[in-house]
Specification:
Elements: E1 3-7, H1 13-22, E2 26-30, H2 35-41, E3 46-47, H3 51-55, E4 60-63, H4 68-75, H5 81-84, E5 90-93, H6 99-111, E6 115-118, E7 121-122, H7 124-130, E8 133-138, H8 141-146, H9 148-154, E9 155-162, H10 166-194, H11 199-207, H12 214-225, H13 234-251, H14 256-270, H15 281-288
Parallel strand pairs: 1-2, 1-4, 2-3, 4-5, 5-6, 8-9
Antiparallel strand pairs: 7-8
The structure holds nicotinamide-adenine-dinucleotide (NAD).
Length: about 290
């Protein structure tokens, strides 16, 4: 069993850290707001007061932070991971960040003597709690193998997709597909309600056919209940739509529907709803049909 440092103990990082404890690892957590590290300490982990303290004795370091600047801020600089981790430690960045930044940071990590993997995840908060995440991994095959035990404690579908940065490219595609699915599910629910259809029954039968999806299973009920507690915050999905839009442009790839959905996500954030779950896109779909608060 390894000593694992987890930096970023939010909606995803904390349950992942708890599952690592359950699997028998020594887990040291660090979070900018310290009460979250205390929550880990109550579950059998340890709370560190700095990045340096968290990573010093770690065999494996996991970062689970919101965005590219956050990851750069935590790994670079004299107080950062690269300066304080032991030589040969695996650094697994599970955050969703820009693929180009992931590639650059992997190079810097190797120069610092670390073994980097970009390993963004999908499956949401429930997937993190259940240890059932889908993990898309970029890096060397050797480092991927070395990280198996840790990945197995937090994930169920774990796939090496290519060299450093590739995990983030696959995750960008994931976010494109999820946002498009949520938007169409929201429009379908608004449509069904307009006809007074029993939406519980409708989603049940839709879920069993080609329209069925994990998005429908996990987000349909939230729309029916008007429960948009996060889950996955629209502010983060807005970041991800920015990532996929920029990466597609960079590659000369056109994503017209993705571009439209990106605008809906961005509108939600602009009007102050970035803290809602991404299923909150439903509220905008309602309003576009003049059916708000129904
Ligand atoms: P979150 O905001 O709940 O958690 C991020 C945590 O990092 C917070 O606890 C915050 O205090 C901490 N933090 C921020 N800056 C820090 C710093 N400099 N040092 C230490 N701690 C710092 O976000 P989340 O939902 O857990 O998402 C984390 C990442 O995982 C994001 O990149 C997100 O896109 C991705 N993701 C989220 C989900 C989901 O359903 N929530 C699913 C898949 C992927």
């Amino acid at each position: 069993m390894s000593t694992v440092a987890v930096i970023g103990l939010g909606i995803m990082g904390l349950p992942m850290a708890k599952n690592l404890v359950t699997a028998g690892h020594d887990v040291v957590g660090y979070n900018r707001s310290p009460e979250k590290a205390q929550a880990l300490a109550q579950e059998g982990g340890k709370a560190a007061e700095s990045v340096a303290e968290a990573v010093r004795d770690a065999d494996v370091i996991i970062t689970m932070l919101p965005d590219s600047p956050d990851v750069k801020g935590v790994v670079e600089g004299q107080d950062g991971v690269f300066a304080h981790a032991s030589a040969g430690a695996l650094w697994i960045d599970a955050s969703t960040i820009r693929p180009d930044v992931a590639g650059e940071l992997a190079e810097a990590a190797r120069e610092a003597g670390l073994r980097p993997l970009d390993a963004p995840v999908s499956g949401g908060e429930q997937g993190a709690i259940d240890g059932a995440l889908s993990i898309m991994v970029g890096g060397t095959a050797e480092d991927f193998e070395a990280a198996q035990e840790v990945f197995n404690a937090v994930g169920a579908t774990i796939v090496h997709v290519g060299p450093s940065g590739s995990g983030q490219t696959v995750k960008a595609a994931n976010q494109l597909i999820v946002a498009g699915n949520i938007q169409l599910l929201a429009e379908a629910v608004v449509f069904l309600e307009a006809y007074g259809v029993d939406t519980d029954s409708a989603l049940k039968v839709l879920g069993g056919g080609l329209a069925g999806s994990k998005v429908l299973d996990q987000k349909g009920q939230k729309m029916l209940d008007r429960n948009f507690d996060p889950g996955f915050r629209l502010a983060l999905h807005n970041k991800d739509m920015g990532i996929v839009t920029a990466a597609a442009r960079e590659a000369g790839v056109t994503i017209p529907l993705g571009g439209l959905v990106a605008q809906f996500v961005s509108a939600m954030v602009a009007r102050g709803d970035g803290g809602l779950d991404h299923s909150g896109l439903f509220t905008l779909a309602q309003e576009l049909s003049g059916r708000d608060n129904q």
